[in-house]
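Sequence design from tokenized structure. All designs in this work follow the same two-part layout: the structure record, then the generated sequence. An example of the structure record is given first.
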């Protein structure tokens, strides 16, 4: 009583102090009591859960088949209506959703209803080479046994079918992204047809351009002669062949060796396709002679063969060699001497092959 007579908190017992009622270590609470599921005690419930998992895997298979049928069976020709496109998109979306949802939900339901759910705890052991390998093999074998996949052929077979078909929609989509870059970008419509050179024409009406039409400071959006007459693949060919045509003071150009004849009296033509990600380069600054890509601000200098002076692009714009025919019209003397568009892995090799 004498120690608490002053009534202070430190002596009255109302405030805990360091070391008071100290416990030497935490007691292991052990594992909580295991609660059996209905499928653990009732064989009928276990069989019902097995059928449910199989149905979900089967739903995944059906969803994949719906996607493939919609992708390959519905023809999207030139005269395709909006209703047909919407129907295909709806079936593609539903097919993909059910394919992924079925296999994912099936695996989750399988794990929650049928796989063992006993809690276990293990002591951490020192790492050993061969013993650890053997232990790992045993763990994998135990996992396979616990899944029950060996004694549940219905689940195993439907799962194999769902897993086998699930990647097909992705493969179909990837396969339809277009031809390989070396086949799609290495050649354009500017290549001469025999001895006939392609004239440079205005975009979009296709009117041929004379050298006298191009004044200093002007810029033309150009497409190859005959592009507008195409019935199939017109947009794809235009996307590769579009060109910007400009005229500068010839003294301001600095052609490299071998390119002295690629321009005509200060008139130069360069691909509009940015070498970064393929956006259209459409802005021309007359005073600085710069071409600007509006997507990511890559800037190219016309006086230095469209060398990159700013932005993420890593290559100059490909130059189209041009000349003038007997009637005074501008013509392309050859196709681009390098692949147009963004860089890709094999581009250097394909450029060498084009120039060889």
């Amino acid at each position: 009583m004498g120690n608490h007579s002053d009534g202070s908190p430190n002596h009255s017992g109302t405030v805990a102090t360091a070391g008071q009622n100290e416990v030497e270590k935490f007691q292991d609470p052990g594992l909580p009591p295991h609660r059996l599921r209905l499928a653990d005690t009732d064989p009928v419930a276990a069989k019902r859960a097995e059928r449910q998992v199989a149905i979900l895997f089967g739903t995944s298979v059906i969803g994949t088949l719906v996607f493939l049928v919609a992708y390959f069976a519905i023809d999207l020709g030139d005269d395709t209506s909006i209703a047909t496109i919407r129907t295909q998109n709806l079936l593609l979306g539903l097919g993909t959703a059910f394919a992924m949802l079925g296999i994912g939900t099936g695996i989750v339901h399988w794990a929650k209803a049928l796989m063992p759910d006993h809690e276990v705890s293990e002591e951490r052991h020192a790492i050993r080479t061969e013993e650890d390998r053997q232990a790992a093999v045993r763990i994998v074998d135990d996992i396979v046994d616990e899944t029950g996949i060996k004694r549940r052929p219905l689940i195993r077979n439907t799962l194999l079918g769902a897993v086998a078909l699930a990647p097909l929609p992705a493969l179909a989509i990837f396969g339809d992204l277009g031809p390989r870059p070396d086949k799609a970008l290495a050649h354009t419509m500017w290549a001469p047809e025999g001895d006939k050179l392609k004239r440079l024409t205005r975009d979009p009406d296709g009117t041929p351009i004379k050298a006298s039409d191009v004044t200093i400071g002007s810029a033309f959006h150009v497409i190859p002669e005959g592009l507008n007459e195409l019935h199939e693949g017109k947009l794809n060919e235009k996307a590769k062949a579009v060109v910007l045509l400009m005229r500068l003071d010839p003294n301001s150009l600095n052609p490299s060796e071998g390119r002295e004849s690629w321009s005509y009296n200060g008139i130069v033509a360069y691909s509009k396709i940015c070498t970064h990600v393929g956006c259209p380069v459409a802005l021309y600054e007359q005073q600085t002679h710069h071409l600007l890509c509006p997507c990511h601000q890559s800037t190219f200098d016309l006086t230095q063969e469209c060398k990159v002076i700013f932005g993420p692009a890593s290559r100059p714009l490909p130059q189209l060699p041009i000349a003038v025919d007997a009637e005074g019209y501008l013509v392309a003397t050859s196709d681009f001497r390098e692949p147009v568009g963004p860089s890709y892995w094999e581009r250097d090799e394909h450029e060498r092959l084009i120039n060889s």
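Residues 38-120+128-175 form one domain. We note this feature because it recurs in several other targets discussed in the main text.
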